[in-house]
Write a structure and sequence with these properties.
- By secondary structure, this protein is mainly α.
- It is built from 8 helices and no strands.
């Protein structure tokens, strides 16, 4: 036990590798599920903040968001306690900013659900929202089309 404690103290990669692997697996599993047609439709409707979203789609979007924000809160505290590498966390935060918080539906979800999170994390997300411009849900597809038309196909 003492040897293991010394080993962990002197090798932070031993401590950080499992959380990084867990976070990667968690996000990968969730993201691949979003490619399923029914969930993808709910995700797109929710992301856009469509006022006419169907109840089932709203429920699906609600729980996808809950899962994402729980994972993000977990990563935030892992980083704050030195368990998750700050560079890895910064990458997660950039993704959250540009792929979630930039869209109206996620902001609506956050406004409704903010009180269920810790005050520290809630303040952190609020600060992120304040710095991220609101984006149109079609912006990523337009960027894809623009880039794909600007570059000749590789042969």
């Amino acid at each position: 036990p003492l040897y293991r404690a010394l080993q962990l103290r002197h090798n932070p990669r031993t401590v950080r590798a499992p959380p990084l692997h867990h976070n990667t697996h968690l996000w990968s599993s969730l993201i691949i599920r979003l490619a399923e047609p029914d969930l993808a439709r709910a995700y797109v409707a929710g992301m856009a903040g469509q006022p006419d979203i169907k109840p089932l789609q709203f429920t699906q979007f609600f729980f996808v968001c809950r899962s994402m924000f729980l994972a993000f809160e977990n990563q935030y505290y892992q980083m704050r306690h030195g368990v998750l590498d700050s560079a890895a966390y910064a990458s997660y935060e950039r993704s959250i900013s540009t792929q979630l918080l930039a869209f109206q539906g996620f902001r609506l979800w956050w406004e409704i659900n903010r009180p269920v999170f810790t005050p520290e994390f809630a303040d952190h997300v609020d600060a992120m929202v304040a710095t991220v411009p609101l984006a149109d849900p079609g912006s990523m597809l337009r960027e894809w089309n623009y880039i794909s038309q600007a570059k000749p196909p590789a042969v």
